[in-house]
Amino acid sequence: MTKLKKAFSIFFKLIGIIVLFFLSFNIILYTYCYITPKISIHKTQSYYLYDNQKKLIFNDNDEWVNLDNISPYLIQATLSTEDKYFYQHLGFDYFRIIKAAVKNLQSRSLKEGASTITQQYARNLFLNYDKTWSRKIDEAIFAAELETHYSKKEILEGYLNTINYGGVYGIENASWYYFGHSSKTLSLAEASMLAGIPQSPSNYSPIINENKAKKRQKIVLLSMYSRGIIQKEEMDEAVNYHLEYIGKTNQSNLENVLYFRDAVINELESINIPNSTLQSGGLKIYTTLDVNAQESLEKAVRDNMSNSTEMQVAGIMSNPNDGSVLALIGGKDYSKSQFNRALNAKRQIGSTMKPILYYSALENGFTSASCFTSEKTTFNFSNGKNYTPSNYNESYANGAITMGAAISYSDNVYAVKTHLFLGENTLVNMSHRLGIESKLSPNPSLALGTGEMSMSELIEAYSTFASMGNRVEQHFIEKIEDNLGNIIYQFNHYNEKILNESLTFILNEMLTYTYDKAFINYNYPTVISLLPKISNKYAIKTGTTDTDVWIVGYNKNAVLSIWNGYDNNKKIDTGEHNYHKNIWIDTMENYLKDKDNSWYDIPNDVVGTLINPITGEIAKEGDKNTKIFYFLKGTEPSYGTKDFETVFKEENEKKFAS
Q1: 3-state SS string over 207-243?
Q2: Among 224, 209, 240, which Cα is nearest to 71's?
Q3: Between the CA atoms of 447, 453, 459 and 461, what dihedral angle is there, to the nearest 10 degrees?
Q4: What is d(CA 507, CA 524) in angstroms, rounded to the nearest whole number?
Q5: How far is CA 441 from CA 83, 355, 379, in A?
Q6: Dist CA 421 CA 658 (whole Å)
Q7: Chain mean position to CA 39
Q8: pLDDT tens digits for 371-417?
Q9: 42-51, 87-96, 210-219, 387-396: which has the minimum mean pLDDT?
Q10: What is the pLDDT of residue 236?
Q11: Crossing angle for the helix pair 354-363 and 501-510, to the nearest 10 degrees
């Protein structure tokens, strides 16, 4: 009996400590919020965003609807599902918090949430969706700020006007988008369907997945029934009512276009527009977005990547002739993470660095048929260090191969030899010349893409190749008009020739060898698997590290880069190595299917010569494996290829021996 009393005593003391903790926490937190200035929860700016056909694609001037003008069904459905005790708590449901904390401790994660409507509203206004402790602390502070300075009615009204309903923000916009009428007249069936979306907008939008949305609707209705808000007959009628959705428009599948919108707003902030003009609102922003390109990109991601994988994706498509960004995705699901990996993440780019290296080589006397020996090689340097690059699957020719073959197979030994022959600073300087601003270290492995940069930097460099040597500026905004129709900003297009057109043409031709059957030999071209899907001519290069896979390719009409990887730098499994390739080819083929897709014209000072594509030897009568390689006039081989291997060894003997 004494032990039982002691156990009860300990239990009640523990409860007392917990109660005291939460009481102290509330006193400190709300006292702090009371003495701090009132935070603003209303927008002061508004924008109308148009695509490159001048069609409205996004209206940030959303109509704010009063709580009294929202269907009671929607309000009750939301409260029943998201926050049953909204009117009783001060911003936090401590019982749910404790329950979620226990589950998170058991799973050693932050998967279980206990956010109230106030906390969700705070997150929508000020924060992101990352599941970190620091974000949760910030969320708690902002939630307390809202509870201190605003009434429950104001908080609920603000929440319903800003929450994500499957890529459509605010209940009034969602009501018109899905059902074609005001939120004031939503029926029970309609309201319960919409109220189920915010928990997981990418899963519960009826436009995206009607089956999942219907299951979620039943949960919402059951919650309302269990609380006595509706009768069983009403619940059954709403469950069985067939809803028609009018949101199935050409743009309904652009669930990740908000990454593009964010990029536009970021660019707007860098443009020198008077603050008074910005604050006046109603700006018309004419963007570079091509809806067909964006649809093609998003569809390719959906078709090729499973919803269950935690692997992320990023992609940028731009017009290489003027730098306009046609499409962009910064992640797999904007509703879960707004971090734009296409613009803000810096990753190792792997072998997508090699075209920059090989253009440098062409400028320094190499040709498409210049040979180095492809074999297992250790480079020993005078400082005592050594470096041993290896080819994928340890595949080597064990003989001389051409630059064209090295590009086709993405031969690492050839790349490092070229890099060291030119001097490591040559690649650094060429990268900066092409618009790459990230700091790159002049070391032997740089040729294999160990330097980190953003996708936008890589796209800008490749756009120069795609435009036959012309440097263009990447941009998202073409023109801005104020609310009176006056043009207050116009993008200044410029075109600067920074590369030799003929050498660029030769490089572009070599980048088609990555899927050319003529190179099926001791190895396979890196994207030969895509050949059945290819109906146009493209320059393509891939890049692979343990944690990143890339593909960049282009023609005269578009340049597209796709990246796959994990935010936590988890190693990529073998089975995940082809997502990026299939996303790339599906996007390009779909986007270009109705477009004139002629390849580049051969410059006057470039000639084609029939040679053995692997060894570079001049083709002889009866040779089975031949390929036309392109050269500047006067540099084409007449009897054989230039022996760079000998020159390489002689000129660098003091620096290293191979």
Answers
A1: CCCHHHHHHHHHHHHHHHHHCCCCCHHHHHHHHHCCC
A2: 224
A3: -50
A4: 19
A5: 53, 18, 18
A6: 12
A7: 32
A8: 999 999 998 887 778 999 999 889 999 999 999 999 999 999 999 99
A9: 87-96
A10: 95
A11: 140
Instruction: Check if 295 is active-site.
Output: no
State the Cα torsion 391-392-397-401 to the nearest 10°: -70
Single-letter residue type at 136: K
- Which tokens sit at 512? 């088609």
**Any catalytic annotation for residue 145?**
no
DSSP-derived secondary structure for 60-111: -SPPPPPGGGS-HHHHHHHHHHH-TTTTTSSS--HHHHHHHHHHHHHHTSS-
Selection from 16-25, 224-233, 506-515 with the highest mean pLDDT:
506-515
Amino acid identity at 128: N
Cβ neighbours of residue 505 closer than 8 Å, sequence gap 6 or more: 468, 600, 602, 603, 606, 630
What is the C-alpha separation between 536 and 555, in angstroms, rounded?
Answer: 9
Query: CA gyration radius for the chain?
Result: 30
Q: Residues for the chain: how many in total?
A: 658
Q: What is the DSSP letter of 384?
A: S
Checking if the pLDDT of 101 tops 60, the result is no
* Among 48-62, 216-230, 434-448, the least confident range: 48-62
User: What is the longest distance spanned by two Cα atoms in the chain?
Assistant: 105
- Contact between residue 491 and residue 286 where contact means Cβ atoms under 8 Å apart: no
Buried b / exposed e along 317-337 (16+ C-beta atoms within 10 A): bbbbbbbbbbbbbbbbbbbbb
Percent of the chain with pLDDT over 70: 80
For 342-368, the pLDDT digits (tens) are 999 999 999 999 999 999 999 999 999
**Is 587 in contact with 557 (CB distance < 8 Å)?**
no
| Active-site option among 71, 80, 82, 335 | 82
C-alpha triplet 621, 627, 632: angle, nearest 5°? 110
Residues 6+ apart with CB under 8 A from 632: 367, 502, 503, 506, 605, 606, 607
C-alpha span between 465 and 458 (Å, rounded): 11
Residue pair 259/314 in contact (Cβ under 8 Å)? The answer is no
Find out whether 505 and 300 touch, Cβ atoms under 8 Å. Answer: no
By C-alpha distance, which of 645, 153, 177 is closest to 421?
A: 645
* DSSP code of residue 42: S
Q: Are residues 155 and 180 in contact, defined by beta-carbon separation less than 8 angstroms?
A: no
> pTM to 2 decimals?
0.72
Virtual CA dihedral for 407, 634, 398, 577, nearest 10 degrees? Answer: 0
List the catalytic residue out of 351, 374, 408, 467. Answer: 351
The one-letter code for the residue type at 488 is: I
Sign, CA dihedral 600-606-611-614, equals negative
Supply the pLDDT for residue 65: 87
124 in Cβ contact with 146 (< 8 Å): no
Query: CA–CA separation, 357 vs 441, rounded Å?
Result: 14
